[in-house]
Design brief:
By secondary structure, this protein is α+β, with helices and mostly antiparallel strands. Helix content is about 45%, strand content about 15%. The protein contains 36 helices and 21 strands. The strands form four sheets. It has a six-stranded antiparallel beta barrel with strand order 10-11-14-13-12-15. The N terminus is likely disordered.
Length: about 950
C-alpha cells in the first residue's frame, strides 16, 4: 500500500521512516544491529527476512506493522506464479469474466483505464513506485467500476501487498527457499497431475508419452555434519552455512525445479515430469557446487568441511500399491519419507565401498537401496546378524545377499552369502548360508548386494503396512499349528483342542533347547510334553496307520521360507505336473497363518486332492503369506479348493487372495513357478471375492503392464506375446502390444495389432481406446483420412473422449479448416468443464487458433486459464512467450516462460523461442547457445 495508507492503518506516526527497501535496510543496520558484529548472522536484516527483532524505542503496535519493510520483494514472474491469487483478490472488489496479463516494455500510464464499450478495464500494477505489469479485466460492469476508479490504485496496491505477504509466508527467511508446507502443497498438485495422466495417458502432442515420464521426482540434500557444526560453532554459523548452500543450489537449478528447506539441515528439490536419471544428474551437479564451499568459522578462523549426501525417490514408481489409494496429503509425505530413507542410506555408505566410485556413494535412489544399500549392523550368535534393510526398503523374508568387506575399491573381498529370516520395519535378522573363508567372518560395516533377480511382485505384494511387524513369527515357526490355534482360542479345554487339532504323529524326541530358533533343516514338530499339555496327544496306532499319519503330518507341517523353497526344488523334479499356490492375508499375524493352515488342511481332506505318495507341502512366504505345493493336481481342482479357502477365511474375518501357477505352462520352467504364482496373485488382487487367480493370459497381461509402466518396453513386449500364446483372443494384450510397437516407432506393426484387437469384437470400453490408438498411429504415419475415420469411431463409441475431439481439431487445423477445428476444440473444452480438475488442454489449442486469427487478447485469456488449470503446461508457456515477443512486451517474461517450457519438455521450438527472447535482451552469446541447442536437439 502507499505510505499514507500504511500510516493510517497502523495508527502510529512513522515520521522519519521510509518504506523504500534500501532505506529500510540501512535503517535496520543502524538501529537494530547489536554492538558485536560476529553475534549477528549474515542473513539477518536482509530484505528476505520477514520477521525482525523490535527496534529500540518501538512499541509492540509499531512493530506489528514495521515488518512491511521486510516483506518479500515482488517481481514480474511472481505475478505469473500467483496469478490465481491475484484474480481472487480483485474479484472481491470487481466482477469480471476473464483476464490477461501484459508486461509493457515502455512506460505505461499509471492510472486505470475503463473501456466501457468493450467492457474492459486496464489496471496498472504498481509495487513501490515500480510498474510490475498490467492486468486487463474482461466483462466488467461500467456502473460498478466508475465509482471505484479513484481508489482502484490503492486496491491494486493492497492486492500486491497481499501477494507479497503470501510470498513471504511460503518462503524460508534464512535461505529464501520455499517452506516445507509449500513444497508439500506443490507435491500434492503434481501427484494429482500424474494420476490424471495415468488415468488418461493419451498425449495431444503426438504419440503417447512413455509412462516412465509420467512421474515426479523428489531429491533430498542433507548436510550430514550439520548438528555437529551447530554444537561446535553455534546456531548462527549453522544458519549461515545453510544460506550459502541455498545460494549454491540456486546457481545450478533449472527454472522448473522447486527448491525448499524441509529440515534444519536439509534441502528438497521437486522435479516435474522427470525420471530417475534426471534426479540423479541434478543431485550430482548440486552436490558438486555445494562441496566447493568452505565456510570459515568466526570462532576458529578455520574452514569447515561439509559432509553432504543425497537421496531421491520417484512418484508413483516408488509407491506401494495400497498406498495409491491414500489421500494426496499422505502420499506426498510418504514420498518424502522414502527420499529421506535414501539419504540415510547414502550417508551410511558414503565412506564405504560405494563412496569411492566417482563419489556416487553420496547419492542413493530409493529403488537402489535394496540392491546395494544394505550394511551389516551387528553380528549375533548362531551365525546370524542384523542388517540395515527393512520393510521400508522393501526387504522380504527369503531374499539372499552377498556380503562384501568394508575395504574401499578393488580391495573389497567377497565374504559369503546370507538369507533374510525375519524382517522388521527398519532392520532385519539374517542367517549365513555359506562363507567364502571361514577365517574371514562378516563384520559390522560390511556392504550387501542383492543376489538373484527379484520377482516383479514382492512375496507379500507390497501390501503390508510398513509400520507393522510380525511379532509372533519366531514363536509361530517354532511351534505347531495346533499350538498357534490354541493361543488364538485362548487355551480351550482338552476336548475342544482335540476336536479342532489335526492328527499329529507321536514322537519321543523332544525339541532342542533353543526352541525359538527358526527351522532351516525341516519342519518343526511338537514334543510329547507339548502334546500332553495342549491335549493333542494321540494313542498308539497300528504300525501301518502310524506310518501313514507320520508321512502326512510331516508333509503338512509348516516349513520356513528357505526350507520350503529347498524342498520344492527337490519334490518338483519328481512330478510332471503340479500346482503352486500363494495365499496372501491382510495383516501380519501368526494366528491368521495358523487359521489359514488349519482350514486348508480341513478342506484338503474334504476334497481328497492328495494322490497316493504325493503329499502336499506348506510353508511361509513372507510375513503375511503362505505357499503350498500340490503335486499331481489339476488346476481346476486346485482353483475350487482355494476359492473355498478364501471364502472360509472371509467368514473368519480375514481378507485373503490366492494366486495359482500350474505346471506345465507355456515355456516356463519348474523353477519359475514361484514367479508365475506371484503374477497370478497380482491378478487375483484385482478380482472380486473370492479372489483366486490363475497364471493365465490375463495375469501375464497385467504383469506386462507393470513392466511397461516401469519403462521396460522390451520386457513388456515379450510378456504380451506370451499372453497371446496363452489366449490369442485377449483383446487387451493385442492393444497393449500395439502400444509397445508404437512406442518403439514401428507404426505399421502397431496398426496391425490394433486391427487384430478389433477383429475379436471388444466391448465399448476397450473399443474406444483401440479406435483412438489406431487414429493416433495413422496420424503419425501421415494418413489423415484414416486417422479422422478412427477418431470419429472413437467419438461415436465414447462421446466424452477428450483427446479424440482434440485430435480431430488438429486434423482440421492442419487442413486449413480453422472454423471446424475451433468447433472440435470448443467441444473438448466443454468436456473439460464437465470434469473439474482436468488440465486445460483444449484451451491451449483454442488459444493457438485465436492467435493465428490475430485475436491476441482472446489467446492471452485462454492461455492464462490453461495455466491456472495446469501451471506446469510447457506448451501453454511456450505459446504465451511467443505472444509476448510478438506484442513487443517485456522479453524477460518471455525468457522465463521459454526456459520453463524447455525444462519441462525439451523441444527445438522452446529453444528457438528462448533464443528470440535472449536476443531481444541483447544477450547474443546466450542466444547462440540456445539456437545450437535447438539444432542439436
Amino acid at each position: 500500500m502507499t505510505q499514507h495508507t500504511t500510516r493510517k492503518n497502523a495508527r502510529v506516526d512513522h515520521k522519519g521512516k521510509s518504506h523504500d527497501t534500501r532505506n529500510a535496510q540501512s535503517g535496520a543496520a543502524v538501529q537494530g544491529e547489536p554492538s558485536g558484529e560476529a553475534a549477528r548472522p549474515e542473513w539477518a536484516g536482509r530484505a528476505g527476512s520477514f520477521w525482525e527483532v523490535p527496534m529500540r524505542g518501538e512499541s509492540g503496535n509499531e512493530r506489528a506493522w514495521s515488518e512491511l519493510r521486510y516483506i518479500q520483494e515482488l517481481a514480474r514472474e511472481d505475478l505469473i506464479e500467483m496469478e490465481g491469487l491475484l484474480c481472487r483478490q480483485l474479484s472481491a472488489f470487481l466482477s469480471f469474466s476473464g483476464h490477461a496479463l501484459y508486461f509493457p516494455r515502455d512506460h505505461a500510464q499509471d492510472e486505470p483505464q475503463l473501456l466501457a464499450r468493450e467492457r474492459r478495464l486496464l489496471l496498472p500494477l504498481l509495487w513501490r513506485d515500480r510498474l510490475l505489469g498490467m492486468v486487463m479485466l474482461h466483462g466488467v460492469r461500467a456502473r460498478e467500476v466508475r465509482p471505484l476508479l479513484k481508489v482502484l490504485p490503492a486496491l491494486a496496491s493492497l492486492c500486491l501487498e497481499n501477494l507479497a505477504r503470501a510470498k513471504a509466508a511460503r518462503t524460508d527467511a534464512v535461505t529464501a527457499l520455499a517452506t516445507e508446507e509449500s513444497l508439500f502443497a506443490r507435491m500434492e498438485g503434481e501427484a494429482e497431475r500424474v494420476r490424471a495422466h495415468l488415468e488418461e495417458p493419451s498425449a495431444p502432442e503426438g504419440l503417447a508419452i512413455p509412462m516412465y515420464r509420467m512421474c515426479m521426482g523428489i531429491v533430498l540434500l542433507r548436510l550430514g555434519n550439520g548438528p555437529g557444526m551447530v554444537r561446535r560453532h553455534g546456531f548462527a554459523f549453522g544458519e549461515n552455512v545453510m544460506s550459502q548452500l541455498a545460494d549454491a543450489c540456486r546457481a545450478v537449478l533449472p527454472s522448473d525445479v522447486l527448491a525448499a528447506r524441509v529440515g534444519s539441515h536439509e534441502i528438497a528439490l521437486l522435479l516435474s515430469a522427470s525420471g530417475r536419471g534426471a534426479c540423479h544428474k541434478l543431485a550430482r551437479s548440486v552436490l558438486a557446487r555445494m562441496e566447493a564451499l568452505r565456510p570459515v568459522s568466526t570462532l576458529t578462523k578455520q574452514p569447515t568441511a561439509l559432509r553432504l549426501c543425497a537421496g531421491h525417490a520417484l512418484y508413483p514408481q516408488d509407491m506401494q500399491g495400497p498406498e495409491m489409494r491414500l489421500g494426496m496429503y499422505e502420499q506426498a509425505r510418504l514420498l518424502m519419507a522414502r527420499a529421506r530413507l535414501a539419504a540415510d542410506v547414502a550417508g551410511q555408505t558414503a565412506t564405504g565401498v560405494a563412496g569411492n566410485r566417482s563419489g556416487e556413494g553420496r547419492i542413493m535412489p530409493f529403488a537402489r537401496i535394496l540392491q546395494e544399500g544394505g550394511l551389516v549392523l551387528e553380528t549375533l550368535p548362531v551365525g546370524r546378524m542384523r542388517i540395515s534393510l527393512g520393510r521400508q526398503a522393501k526387504a522380504r523374508e527369503g531374499m539372499r545377499f552377498a556380503v562384501w568387506s568394508a575395504a574401499p575399491g578393488p580391495k573389497a573381498r567377497h565374504k559369503g552369502e546370507i538369507v533374510l529370516l525375519r524382517v522388521g520395519d527398519k532392520d532385519s535378522i539374517a542367517e549365513i548360508l555359506h562363507l567364502a573363508d571361514t577365517t574371514f567372518l562378516p563384520a559390522p560395516g560390511d556392504s550387501l548386494a542383492l543376489l538373484g533377480q527379484s520377482p516383479v511382485l514382492s512375496p507379500d505384494l507390497d501390501g503390508h503396512d510398513p509400520a507393522l511387524s510380525f511379532p509372533g513369527a519366531q514363536d509361530f515357526l517354532s511351534t505347531s499349528p495346533t499350538a498357534a490355534l490354541q493361543q488364538k482360542a485362548g487355551s480351550p479345554s482338552q476336548g475342544e483342542a482335540a476336536a479342532h487339532a489335526p492328527d499329529l504323529p507321536e514322537t519321543k524326541t523332544p525339541l532342542p533347547e533353543d526352541s525359538t530358533r527358526l527351522p532351516t533343516d525341516g519342519p518343526v514338530l511338537p514334543d510329547e510334553d507339548e502334546k500332553r499339555t495342549t491335549g493333542s496327544f494321540q494313542p498308539e496306532s497300528t504300525p501301518a496307520v502310524h506310518a501313514g499319519k507320520t508321512a502326512q503330518a510331516e508333509s503338512m507341517a509348516l516349513c520356513g521360507h528357505g526350507d520350503f523353497l529347498n524342498r520344492f526344488a527337490q519334490e518338483s523334479e519328481r512330478y510332471a505336473r503340479f500346482v503352486l499356490a500363494i495365499v496372501r492375508m491382510e495383516g501380519a499375524s501368526s494366528s491368521n497363518a495358523a487359521t489359514a493352515l488349519h482350514l486348508w488342511e480341513k478342506l484338503l481332506r474334504k476334497k481328497g486332492l492328495s494322490e497316493a505318495g504325493a503329499a502336499p507341502l506348506a510353508g511361509l512366504y513372507g510375513s503375511n503369506s503362505l505357499i503350498f505345493f500340490h503335486p499331481g493336481v489339476e488346476p481346476q481342482n486346485a482353483t475350487t479348493l482355494y476359492e473355498a479357502l478364501c471364502t472360509a477365511l472371509k467368514d473368519e474375518g480375514i481378507d485373503a487372495a490366492a494366486g495359482l501357477a500350474a505346471f506345465p505352462f507355456l515355456q516356463y520352467r519348474k523353477a519359475e513357478m514361484p514367479d508365475c504364482a506371484l503374477k497370478a496373485l497380482e491378478y487375483a488382487l484385482l478380482l472380486p471375492h473370492p479372489r483366486v487367480g490363475q497364471c493365465s493370459s490375463l495375469a501375464l497381461n497385467i504383469s506386462a503392464d507393470r513392466r511397461y509402466s516401469l519403462g521396460d518396453v522390451f520386457g513388456a513386449l515379450e510378456e504380451y506375446k506370451l499372453s497371446l500364446l496363452a489366449d490369442e483372443t485377449n483383446v487387451m494384450a493385442w492393444n497393449s502390444l500395439g502400444v509397445c510397437m508404437a512406442a518403439l516407432g514401428r507404426g505399421h506393426e502397431a496398426r496391425r495389432h490394433f486391427l487384430e484387437a478389433l477383429r475379436h469384437k471388444p466391448d465399448d470400453g476397450a473399443a474406444k481406446q483401440i479406435y483412438y490408438n489406431l487414429g493416433n498411429v495413422c496420424q503419425s504415419l501421415g494418413e489423415r483420412r484414416a486417422a479422422a475415420r478412427y477418431y470419429r469411431q472413437c467419438v461415436k463409441v465414447a462421446p466424452d473422449h477428450l483427446f479424440a475431439h482434440i485430435r480431430l481439431g488438429q486434423l482440421c487445423e492442419q487442413g486449413g479448416r480453422r472454423a471446424e477445428a475451433r468447433r472440435y476444440y470448443e467441444l473438448a473444452a466443454a468436456i473439460e468443464d464437465a470434469t473439474p480438475g482436468r488440465p486445460g488442454v483444449a484451451r491451449r489449442h483454442l488459444a493457438r487458433v485465436a492467435a493465428r486469427q490475430r485475436k491476441g487478447g482472446e489467446a492471452r485469456e485462454l492461455l492464462h486459464e490453461a495455466l491456472l488449470r495446469n501451471p506446469q503446461d510447457p506448451a501453454s508457456m511456450l505459446l504465451l512467450a511467443n505472444i509476448y515477443l510478438d506484442g513487443n512486451e517485456d522479453p524477460a517474461m518471455a525468457e522465463l516462460l521459454a526456459r520453463k517450457s524447455a525444462g519441462l519438455h525439451d523441444r527445438p521450438e522452446a529453444w528457438q523461442t528462448l533464443a528470440r527472447a535472449l536476443r531481444a535482451l541483447d544477450r547474443e552469446d546466450e542466444a547462440r547457445l540456445a539456437e545450437a541447442r535447438a539444432v542439436l536437439g
